[in-house]
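Budget justification, computational time. The allocation requested in the original proposal was used primarily to generate structure tokens for proteins on the priority list. As evidence of use, we reproduce two of the resulting records. The first is shown immediately below.
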Amino acid sequence: MKLTGTSNISFYVNEYIQAHSSEFQGKTVVDIPAGDGRTSEALLTAGAEVRAYDLFTDIFKPEKLKSEYADLTKVLPIESESCDIVICQEGIEHLADQLFALSEFNRILKQDGRLLITTPNYSSLRAKLAYLLLESEARNLMPPNELDSLWSPPGTKSARVYFGHIFMIGIQKLRMLGWLSGFQLQKIHPTRINWTSALLLPIFYPFIWLRSLLTYRRSLRRNTTDSEEQKRTTYQKIRELICDPKILVEQHLFVELKKVEGQSVVQARLNGEETPQQT
């Protein structure tokens, strides 16, 4: 966790790329939405083969790269299993069908490929309190509405608007939608601390810890279908996310997921069929 510094998530993503440049060197990386291209430029510097996509390609700045048009609500113009890493920075909270977008990321990633997602942290204590009081993402913002929640990025020539933060997503839903689309949660990378959440932590944490423990034990008793090992493994992972202080206090979620199943395997599993062999 960063105690001070900018709240701009691009800074932390680019800092991560610089610190792990060897992981990006020679890799095909899709940056979507690419925005003004600052992350694409950092990836290029790290030695990646960068493919940038966005709804608004005219705000893309790097001269050595080109941003291509793509809409995350539709099938992406990218070949299946053609990239090693996908970075989706501040995009998923704008999408009504988040499962579809994650399934598309699964399709274009190679087996064991990585998906890096950032989004405003809807699991933070500040966000939880704001939702309790206002059904909003922050105490100084109105709930999603038709005046404030339809955006067109400044500087773009397009008249098209897109949804603002209407579809905010927390760590639990992100983990579950990832599982449904063939991903496994691997890591949560650090961003900057939110001081409102930090001040709330010592007040609320004992209640969160105790309530999650009681719910965990009750869920073990109520679930009579799955094995004890399955129940303990799954519910414990969920409880760890509930009680993770980093998740409760940080400004953004910066999540890394790994593709562990292709779409045919996922669909067969959800249909209760025998799963085909991975290729």
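The second record produced under the same allocation is shown here.
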Amino acid sequence: GMSSVDLARLDQLPSLTEPDLFRALQWTPGVRKTSTVSGGLSVRGADPDQNLYLLDGAPVYHPWHAFSLVSTFQTGTLKNTDLYRGGFPVEYGGRLSSVVDAQMKDGSRQEPSAEVGVGMLSGRFRVEAPISDHTSFMVSGRRSYIDKLIGRTHAVTDESGRRDTLRTGYYFYDASAKLAHRFNDEHRLTVSYYQGRDDLDLRLPFDLSLDFDSWLRPADLFFEVEQNWTNRVVSARHQYLVSDDVFVTTTGYYSGYQAREASFVQPTTTASLTSDYGVRLHD
């Protein structure tokens, strides 16, 4: 039930923006998206929350940007990725359906290198370099620029001079880093870090008149939503080659996820609806 993802071929697969790991997994038999536009991965008909996503041995919760359009894993930072669609080993407990085990690059030990890319939704960079003969690092980052193109706030005015503010702020970013040190042929230590965030700030004042040329203008009916979610992962892994046939891997990690959604809807001049809830998870 295990298959390795050919990361070198991701550039050849159809993608909405930049090469994306999770979109490539949809071409694997038994894997599909629960929705055409958004939604998580469904493996052999299971629910998306029954999948385990690992980054350098640490679980990542809700690993999506842009409401499930883009995965949080930058393919350029990955060394290898294994997909278990069933019968996965006992160390991958905690989920019922599948395991996506992704490993980040250690960084080049030969010479420094840098890469910069621009996609439809975001820009990204990656830097790799050796520190010594036995130590190397890799740093990468990515950020969307939709909010920079269209702006976050827009003033709107009606015929009577009443003013309001239309808000269309949304962005996501992620950053990752890895430090690798090889003590000798038997001992190796790596430290990895990942952080990503999505932030939505939306306010839409609606005028329900039949004048569609100016339906976004100051009105008694408006809709506001503030939504954000953040992932932060730190992991350290020591690998010890005991003999040609036995090795021991020890992993310690912290994985934190938090999300918040607050909304305010005023459908009439005398009625309104407010909701505010949040989720916090520390593993």
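A brief technical remark on that second record: The first helix runs from residue 21 to 25.
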